[in-house]
Amino acid sequence: MEYFASSSHSVSSQRILYTPSEFARTSLLYLQETGSLHALAAHTSHREHLASYLFFSVTSGSGELNYNGKTYALHSGDCVFIDCRKPYSHATSADLWTLQWCHFYGHTMPDIYKKYQERGGQPVFHPKEMEELAEVMTDLYSAAESDSYVRDMKINEILNRLLWILMKNSWHPEQGRAAHARKRMSMEKVKSYLDENYKEHITLELLSQKFYINKYYLTKIFKETYGVTIISYLETRRITQAKNLLRFTDMTVDEISAAIGMNDANYLARRFRKIEGMSPGEYRKKW
Fold first, then answer.
1. Number of Cβ within a 10 Å radius of residue 57
2. Residues 203 and 224 in one domain
3. Could you give a GO molecular-function term held by this entry (predicted)?
């Protein structure tokens, strides 16, 4: 990595330009740049077609972001998370801002950012607790400047922690219409019901009647909330319990299929192989 403490007529900054290992580039989330800056005068930064994702927080002052055809006002405590392959620019206001930022990438990032958007994540958000994000940024800078031989693994861990926090902040039902927010909140009740009754025969029609929600709308909101369909969630819950019973009981596959609500050993075997890459019997022997 290279340290740069720079000052110009418009900004004073301290940053680390990071060059990850080939292993990190192919297998991990990796850092490209991290640092902080304080604006000394009005300035605008503009980029496009950059294979990078940018996170930054406004620690003081204000400014604006232009991204994907929209302009967002930014104030102290606001955060930005964007795909830099799209054109963007950001500029301080007369209330000169101070920022902390990181650019990072990884081959899984396009799918991760898509999931962030599906959960309702926005380019600009105001986190409830800035402290944990500030801690992540401090840890990231410290890891990047260290000489540890497992530095890339540590950076990967910190970037995953950052993404976890961003995902937590991506859902804000209170910002939508009250009725829509109530429907979203009811998904917790639906999920609890699935967790408690996955061994039973459950259909979308049954859930629709029980929770007084149109089955198509129920399917849509559940996937937006948890990232999977109701059918996929049920199947994952059942396969997980099947693995538990295979490992820690002597139950037959027929008995297990009945116990987890599938009621068909052949169907369980097909779905188990599809998900785990081996038959239930092979799983039991290997684990």
1. 23
2. yes
3. DNA-binding transcription factor activity
